[in-house]
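ok here's the first one, seq then struct tokens
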Amino acid sequence: MLSGRQEMRYFLGSGKRGRTYLFQQQGYWFEAPINWYAKKQVWDMTPHYLDAREMPLTLPVDPGCLHCHASGAASALPDARNHYAGEPFAEGGITCAACHGDAGAHLASGGKVHMLNIDALAPVRRDSVCLNCHLEGQAGVERLGKQIEKFKPGDDLFDYTLFFVYRNENGSGGRATSQWEALLKSACKQKSGDKLTCTTCHDPHGSPAPGERVVFYRQRCIGCHNAAGFAEKHHPENPDCTECHMARPPSNDIAHEQVTDHWIKKSVSQERLPLATSGDLVTVGGMATSDRDLGLAYAQMAVRGDRAARERAMELLRRAETQSVETKKDHELHAQLGFLEQIDGKTDEATKEYKLALEADEYDALAAGDLALIEAQRHDAREAIRLWGSVFAHDPAQLKAGMNLAVTECVQGERDAAHETLDRMLVFSPDDGQAKSFAAEIRTGRQGCGQP
């Protein structure tokens, strides 16, 4: 039985849909594993952990999460994506500056200097203000040298990140944050072009009261669909346009939530949409992509078990590796290519890629952790301990590295070091059954260190 106390420092979310609570350990910030789901008025496990048998207490809070759920998100320290020098964000909630940019000059001038006029921006920059948080895709790939938390209103989002979906995806793809991908398929968007954007139908400063929603959104539809009195003649008995044309099936990726499918079809089903798991990847919005970015997107699909995606990723990343001297700085490309080579059984090639990744970023946990596994298989225990030790020292959420480190230390006869590693694991993940069991075996002598 797990017991103890932990201070929840912040929560994210207004409470309309739900809330996620944050805590920190030694400068590392984590999500609480229990969320509040407001629509159903229930406490339940965080998304993706509904079937967990152990309490997950090392769910990292990174800048990619915070830049949408808070304002003034800090950049993480280089050693771990949830390690911060101070508070992880400047202000809770979404402030004016999140959409309208820095308010310093506006405030200093007493309002005479206007803040950013979003409607005056080029369409892609205008849309980027919303899509910065309301676009997810099947895979997101940051462009080399870019960080999404550096995005500012007025920027082109696609200069920072490219988003990919399967070409054969069905509407929203079943994802809770998928409105733009589906809208791009709709006849409404295709016929309206840049004229139609998120704020055509949504007021970003507030939502209509429940009793006003049907009339509010019907007026948005009528703005385009009232030729020759169409709106008065089209099902006057049911003024809720969305009921027939915008399905609300259950989400595939967030518990207790629904997807409002923005495909806007003539007839829809409220059944859960099938989640596409294979096929050709394309960029959302038809943005041009490089071999590097497309290869990294396929690599993300490969991690989910798609063998065809693995082969495609390897082909693209190998080609990208030869195309520019900039790849020397691209730890993500080398780490992912190393991973693909390793699962293909090509350990020499994987070793080369992992070392290139670590030259570009000494804190790359994927490269260091998987290289340690190769070194252990080569019976170089000292190098494996050095690599796993570095990973776990800098990022305690890397529990597999911690466990591998403890086991290898014990096999090498370093009983005290193994105990120290296991103790640190249990500080950050006190419900880790494997760590608890191994620590007990060492303590009672059932596991003698120094014995393989």
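and now the second one, same deal
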Amino acid sequence: MVRIGVLLVILYPSWINAEEKKVLNGLQVHGFLSQGYIKTTDTKNDVFGDSSSGKGSFDFREIGVNASHRPITNLQFSMQLLSRQAGESSKGGIRIDYGFLDYTAITSETKELGVRLGRTKNPLGFYNDTRDVPFTRPSILLPQSIYFDRTRNLGMASDGVQIYGESRNDWGDITAQFGVVFPQVDNKNTEAAIFQKSQPGELTPRLSYIGRIIYERDGGRFRFGISGAQVNAGYDPAEKGDKLSAGSLEFIPLIFSLQYNAERWSFTSEYALRHIDMKNFHNPVLDRSFTGESYYFQGIYRFNPQWEAVVRYDAYYADRKDRDGDEWNAFTNELNNFKGGRPAHSRFAKDLTLGLRWNITPSIMLRAEYHRVNGTGWLSTLDNPNSTFTDQHWNLFAAQASYRF
């Protein structure tokens, strides 16, 4: 709470003079804050804190401030500080969400080419670039089959260099981004997602690659995108008491994105294949290679500028060859001498979401949504350290109040 208070002090002068300070000698300042509430009806499945308790969890808040400065026409500096409280995976400390130098080498009415250097957002799917700001998300929780909150730091941004370009023509617009980066793996939520628990050694980033191409027509009425990455990481075992060897991880996601926007409604669908190759850990649970699969179908209807509704079906399978998780359950059961393996439902999740958004003013938004979930594949092991005691069928209710300037 002390760190959040410090950030509030930083933000306060911007709030009281927001319009005056948004543009000051080429400096633009914006920010946001939100407070969320999560209640899971089952007494065993927790999301962003102790949500399965009788009172639910208010342990979900986001506070951010970003600034950009353009000293000359083709050069811009951008940075965002973020404090996020989301259960055990994120405890509210202030961190650099992104910070980079952006140089535009070529710009005209029909094309643009530039380079970014520093910590840049990962160009994955339609929503990853802006998912940190509540107003830009289609729902409180993004489809967890594509945009995992349990590995949020890994998915959000990377450190390195990114080349981007755009071509605008009568037949449509194409934007492309390609990066050579080092992923953010030195955090406990990434470690917990990979190893299922804390380890004495450390994950270390290795040179990785990421890219995305998006095609648009009619000012964004129709959008189609392909994005992917090769994420590489290693493990440095502790000198004493570490049962793991110096293993390596290769994660290759490939995402196909499609969206159609009309005056009152939007339809979005994304499909992903995720190949994971882990080796040399000298651990039978970790030394594996498999391909996961996930997709969602989402519809948004805008009743008027103030009110909109969302409905979505979201499906996640950790291993496309073991969709029901039975093989995983049998494998881990055998490793444990038939004393209880990891549940089959921890390898998949099917989520039906209904949500409502109320834009009270351009700066204030309220949201509420309901999830009916079959499976626990995207639950965080930090909030649920023992997956054996989670239930397959469960409900989630979420509400959120957000403000931006």
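notes on #2: Helices lie at 2-16, 18-21, 152-156, 188-195, 326-335. Residues 1-23 have pLDDT under 50 and may be disordered.
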